[in-house]
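Recap quiz, item 2
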Amino acid sequence: MNSSTRPAQPRPHARRPAAADGARELKRIQRAFWRVIAQPLTRNNRTPRRGPDGRATAAAVARFIKPNDRLNAVERIQIYHRAYWFRLLDSLYDDCPGLRAVLGEKQFMRLAEAYLARHPSRSFSLRNLPSRLAAFIRAEPRWTRPHTALCVDVARFEWAQVVVYDEAARPLFTTDDLLDADPASLRLSLQPYLQLLALDYPVDEFLLAVKQQESLLRHDASNMPAQARATDAAPHASRPPRPERGRCWVAVHRFDDMIYLKRLERASFAILTALRAGRTLDEAVARGVPPSRQADEAWAATVRDWFRNWTELGWFCRRDKSTTSNR
Amino acid sequence: MTFSRRPAESCARCRIAAPSSMPANRFNAYTDYGIGIGLRVPHYRHILARKPVVDWFEIISENFMVDGGRPLEVLDQILTQYRVVQHGVSMYFGSADPLNRAHLKKLKTLVRRTQTPWLSDHLCWGSVDGSYSHDLLPMPYTFAAARATAEKIRQARDYLEVPICVENVSSYAEFHVSEMTEWEFLSEVVERADCGILLDVNNIYVSSKNHGFDPRDYIDNVPHHRVAQMHVAGHTKFEKYILDTHDHPVLDPVWKLYARATRLCGVTATLLEWDDRIPSFDEVHHEALKANEFIDEARPATPARAPARSR
């Protein structure tokens, strides 16, 4: 058995600069490596000849990466550079079918690249990659003109779907929890996964059309030759029309682990957002129903129906006493 | 959440691994798991409906480090039927950044849920100053890096309270500052951390071609008694380098290395990785079970495993 169980000893011929001996050196190397791979690729998917600081990439990389008999130092790090960008762009591509449908493939890819260059991933999970996309679109409208407002709504909606998919569900609030409760002080909690969106465009209908279209395309594509599938002519030709501006309120929720979209009325949306903000039941209802109408029997019946429906959908949960905020 | 899980031995659906001539070791919690495959989304429906006989599933921890929804529903259903081992891709023991406390906390929650007997992640780095590459980036093989990496492995193990194994990655670049070979670096880290090894023989093959070393030297010179699990996978050859793509069946040279590693390390829990262009469940499982041929071949030559030592 040729097993080595002792720590390796330095080889006499090994090159060992004094600076290598320390955590600082490790950090320096990793930052240098990161600076190369975090900059966008060229149009030909290559590492740029010059870095963001204007210095020649070849000289900078050759300081820490060795060439071999087939690849120079830049070609070796370029393997990682491409993998980094392809992986992250693929992830955003999959998460954002609606943005792709609004912008088209080319403009979407320009947006995605600018976003990732400005906001590299700060999470161990790719799930969180689009979390800052809506804010980025708002802050840098040049990537989405002339559809910036629509893109903000679509990005918010697509991120909401990510959250709804795997956010926590807490124990349901039951009628027993209402015993002896005073509406003036009762506070209801909403499930953490429930997402409430006030939108300037009806992107819920638009995204359903996009997904339906993509599903049809996938079905068609299964009988198409690979060459035909590689072109994006078909998706462009059948892209659903961009929606016209129109205020709407939507709940993105989950039931039996499936994601659903539910249109809300302005008043019901106001009640739910007030509950989420930690208002009492009385205060929340007052947000949705004008005080002058609260004695109206028709309104009372409507509000009762809303609460019955929301309870059936499991939107109310027991309050988490460990947290002070009510999401 | 607490949940009960039948012991694997009493699970009718689980095939009991063939008794090996080698003892299991403390780095895999003295288990003898046999041949597993990765739990992947395209196979969920097949597994849950047909309940195929599989020794164990390896899950990517990060896919289940969430607070609710379908991922955890599926996982809980799998856990009632199968043995599961966690494999991570973002602990980044080799990053100069300190361990991410929030990440560790989520990971520990998952460890309690799965009751994984051991937990693996890669001997690499992938984040710097809080930015994540989502890749397995190569280490400079220096003594300073080995010390820092081993310290982080120890911290993670102490917090997670589960044996940790580190996996050798495939690599495409080498650093001027390196002071030793990759297998010396791996040995240095695991001895200092007193942890196990997840020996990926495909990665050894890929790196040997990319860097021009003999893969047998690598396999011969790692501390065999620390090998707690092995990986096999397919790769793709390009003109000037080989890429670890996990989208093909395992190639013959990799199986040969696997047989060599099994002769030296003993019969070890083995997992086939197939992560892209994933074929049917049956095809993946059939490919994984080919390992049995090489295990049978290696078994008569298997030497006694060195006793596990505590440092």
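The first strand of chain B starts at residue 35 and ends at 38.
Chain B touches chain A through 65 residues (CB under 8 Å).
End of item.
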